[in-house]
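name: query_chain
kind: protein
chains: 1
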Amino acid sequence: MKKKTWILILVAGSLVILLALAENQTDFLRTNANEMPENDSESKKKNITYYTKYYQTKKSIYDSYKHEESETIFLGDSLTDYYEWGEALSDHEVLNRGIAGDTTTGVLNRIEEVVKAKPDRIYLLIGINDMIAGQSVNKIETNYKQILDTLKTQSPNTKVYVQSLFPVNTALTGHPLNNSIIKDLNKRLEDLSNLYDYQFIDIYPELVEFGQLNKDFTFDGLHLNGEGYKIWTRKVLSTYNTNAEEK
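structure:
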């Protein structure tokens, strides 16, 4: 009898824990759900950036910022967010507008703050989290068109640099990503850059080895380590210094 009682107690306890976890997950998904585009069920399924408190916190900080002239903005996800771009480029007018976990839809949701700044330059890198969420390459390309069209029409004097997505190391990352699909998207981004008369910076070849993200440049197969950021910084500087001389 005692054994049955303990079993019932354990089962009941397990149910309580599961219900609590489910409620927490529901709360997470409900967080700032009103920020989602209306009737955009696909975005709700595949762009959970809107639901994260980190995204909302960072966006509110960026929205509160008072811009100055001659700024350079790095716009993207965690790959941008994690780096100290101002220090790397020795330029106090460099602003980091990366948000870890962000997607092309998330960038569209916060692009107003960027175009209002009318920066001298924007370095854009976004899209890998769309792929992780299962978003189609066609949808990512469509969102990119909207991003670039917004930049072109609302900040026409800004020099925009579209950066290629990086390769991943499938042996190290737990995400179902495919480098051949990443290369396909990069080709589309290059074509879009030409269409909008923006410069495309192809960083992919600098980071790849044997078809994978070089393990010397990453710890988790997705994000860069210090050595990886050195490669990226050199690619940026090849355009950054040129622009500086033009001023």
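note: The CA atoms of residues 216 and 227 lie 7 Å apart.
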